[in-house]
């Protein structure tokens, strides 16, 4: 066999091998499920705060079928909210029925639980919401009254919210904070008398102002304004919150797309700001 014949045979063998490899690659690719390659990492979401935040992300009452943010594909949600949890660390809160122990912030409950939750979940983003226990007057350690919205209240509450943000940010998670823009009537039980403190717009604004201010002071912490959605025209939408406080299943479902967009945008912004500049 001449050298040129051997060369032609060698090239022919290489060509046949290339075709076989190409066919094999196509066959393998056809067996891989669509989206299995480079599938996006699920957004790890930790929800803390009062039960209001829990119902916003999961709906109320809880059901076997997921609702709200928990039902969104690409979301892995862990709910570590605490029922009737106020963020303030003062020992007593003055409810409509009278003074009562501040069994959450005043006993160190959230200060002990949420650092453990952040460390265990290692979330991409933490959603934290204020609840109605933050709108009441409080009593200091010596029993003196601390009116909600006063300078003394604002100084103490600002320090408590700042500590909370620091705890939630400890592992580098993005933090998205929210507060109800208003409270409404209980349409589930019209016989329930309205709670004056919830109906006082100044008290709600005082909580909102502290959260917004403290969030604006920290990288990676943002304040999410839901007022236009949940309080159109300044009045609570009973479809979203039938009892005037907690979100229904349909309410959580309706808000979930916008909430997810806001969380993802906050995470992207936080990561861009943390990236080294070339």
Write the layout of secondary structure elements.
Elements: H1 3-31, E1 43-49, H2 51-58, E2 75-79, E3 92-95, E4 98-101, H3 109-121, E5 125-129, E6 137-139, E7 145-146, H4 151-168, E8 174-178, H5 196-199, H6 201-216, E9 221-223, H7 227-230, H8 249-274
Parallel strand pairs: 1-2, 1-5, 5-8, 8-9
Antiparallel strand pairs: 3-4, 3-6, 6-7
Name the features.
4-stranded antiparallel sheet, alpha/beta, 5-stranded parallel sheet, 2 domains, globular
Mean pLDDT: 88
* First-to-last CA distance: 61 Å
Tell me the count of domains: 2
Q: What share of the residues lie within helices?
A: 40-55%
- Would you identify the CATH H-level superfamily of the largest domain? SGNH hydrolase
Overall body shape: globular
Task: Give the strand content.
Answer: 5-15%
Q: Could you describe the 3D structure shown?
A:
The protein has 278 residues and is α/β, with parallel strands linked by helices. The chain folds into 2 domains: 39 residues; 231 residues, Rossmann fold, CATH 3.40.50.1110. 42% of the residues lie in helices and 14% in strands. It contains 8 helices and 9 strands. It has a 5-stranded parallel beta sheet with strand order 2-1-5-8-9, sandwiched between helices.
